[in-house]
Amino acid sequence: MEDFNNKSYNSLQKKTYNIFQDWKINEGNIKGRIVLVLYRLASLIRSKKILVIFFFWYLLFYRIFVEWFLNIEIHWNSKIGKGLRLEHGHGTVIHGDATLGNYCTIRHLTTIGIIKHDDGSYSHTPQLGNNVDVGASVTIIGGVNIGDNVLIGAASLVVRDIPANTTALGNPARVVKRHEVAEVSKQISYVVE
Ligand SMILES: CC(C)(COP(=O)(O)OP(=O)(O)OC[C@H]1O[C@@H](n2cnc3c(N)ncnc32)[C@H](O)[C@@H]1OP(=O)(O)O)[C@@H](O)C(=O)NCCC(=O)NCCS
């Protein structure tokens, strides 16, 4: 599999490539496709001052259409690798400082965000590796690191790091299973060559 994100392509090439990867991986999921194309364009515009000047109207449209009407908040500053699968896109929130690796899956009612501490300060944001499959109604908050090939059970609350190649679930989420990598790639079957 080509690891486009590790090569020295410019951001325009990467973001355009990511649009195609998202499109391919969300086959049969028109809402996911639309939201991700709109997110990639917003993210591209936000990455260059000159584009913001000419396309500020698009950013406004993105906020109103995707957040208010489609009910999905993926901040344009979130760093999302190629091939994000957005299943049943309702009530999804991804913070602007969060990072998602390649080929992750996010489902409805999932929050990836920060914690506000008693002293008014904010925590760091979650960082997800590659092939992280997040079940429905999962909340991942704070500066947690989630390794590659992780399955997170539906309705889990993740507030601690989760190591690679595991299944974690519950409130708070704990590792319940460790996987052989081959087994994981079979389960997480969205990887495209
Ligand atoms: C976490 C998950 C990946 C585990 O799948 P699995 O490895 O096949 O595990 P099993 O179904 O064999 O369950 C193992 C145990 O965990 C429990 N379990 C499974 N998912 C759980 C969850 N989300 N929360 C709490 N416990 C869970 C099972 O009841 C079972 O308990 P037991 O050993 O006491 O009987 C899966 O259950 C899951 O939650 N996937 C997300 C699916 C989803 O979000 N679907 C929405 C589609 S719209």
From TrEMBL:
Keywords: Acyltransferase, Membrane, Repeat, Transferase, Transmembrane, Transmembrane helix. The chain crosses the membrane at residues 50-70. Gene3D superfamilies: Hexapeptide repeat proteins (2.160.10.10). The keyword Amino-acid biosynthesis does not apply. InterPro entries: Hexapep_transf_CS, LbH_SAT, Trimer_LpxA-like_sf. PROSITE patterns: HEXAPEP_TRANSFERASES. This is Serine acetyltransferase. It comes from Pedobacter lithocola.
